[in-house]
Amino acid sequence: MARIEQSIDVNVPVSTAYNQWTQFEEFPRFMEGVKEVRQLDDAHLHWVVEHNNQKHEFDTEISEQRPDERVAWKTTDGKSHSGVVTFHRIDDASSRVMVQMDWEPEGMLETLGKALGSDDRRVKSDLEKFKELIESRGGESGAWRGKIDKGDVVSR
Predict the structure, then answer these.
(1) What is the pLDDT of residues 50-83, one digit of tens each?
(2) Domain ranges (residues) in the chain
(3) What is the mean predicted confidence (pLDDT) over 8-29?
(4) Structural domain 2-138, CATH architecture
(5) Contact call for residues 30 and 126 (beta carbons, < 8 A)
């Protein structure tokens, strides 16, 4: 397994950063290679991504979601990966978004890319685009404030 850990400070309150991150269908606006994310229900997403001119589709389950704190996920089919995004209050007007992701490189190109750090650079770039998006808007485009524990919605 390969591990990616990146973070970025954003000049918005932690609730604004968290609320925007829960708008999963907007991920293509700031994540390179993500062509579509479709929310199937509160805890399940279908992804369409393109990498090295190849299209991949997979499903993920949100295993844990706590407002203003964290969103954790794992794949249920397709490429194997899992991760967590955590949100940390710096002060009333700024916060830190941290991504930790584990994934299984497939084939020589992905293994080489991992060795050269291209996956870390991509996540860092995606976080920088998220920062630009949320700071230029000055607010979130929506919010889902429910809680998920072990893949089950426990509150809406």
Answers:
(1) 877 889 899 999 999 999 999 999 999 877 789 9
(2) 2-138
(3) 97
(4) 2-Layer Sandwich (3.30)
(5) yes
